[in-house]
Design a protein that fits this description.
Immunoglobulin-like; 5-stranded antiparallel β-sheet; about 130 residues; mainly beta; about 0% helix
């Protein structure tokens, strides 16, 4: 599990290899990732946007950006957590992701970035 804390917001990531899928004569490797966002600060914050860089060892870097996460823009009071699961497909069995969340402090309306630690997307067969 990868973790990182920015401005009192802890991000934890757990990845899982889900197998392969064939589409249009191309083999894809499927990965899921569960992310827990924990507010360890004394302020209430809201996640407003996400930004991802997805590295695929056989492909170019893919940038994914947009509002919220999986259709939600969670508000986290101090000590609250929000967990969600998402995933991606790679053309290789080795890759990585990193990025950040844009957050807004609900008391001061300050906007800030919370870094998502780089995490590996690896087929466990490579580790043997």
């Amino acid at each position: 599990m990868e973790t990182q804390i920015t401005k009192g917001i802890k991000i934890s990531v757990q990845t899982t290899f889900k197998g392969t899928s064939l589409s249009n004569h191309t083999l894809y490797y499927a990965f899921s990732y569960a992310i827990t966002i924990e507010n360890r600060s004394d302020e209430t914050v809201q996640l407003t946007d996400r930004y991802w860089e997805i590295f695929d060892s056989l492909n170019q870097i893919e940038i994914v950006a947009g509002e919220g996460v999986v259709g939600q823009s969670p508000i986290l009071k101090p000590s609250e957590k929000h967990t969600y699961t998402s995933g991606c497909f790679l053309t290789s069995n080795l890759g990585a992701m990193k990025g950040f969340y844009s957050m807004t402090n609900q008391e001061t309306l300050e906007q800030f970035k919370v870094m998502i630690p780089t995490f590996q997307l690896t087929n466990p067969l490579l580790l043997n």
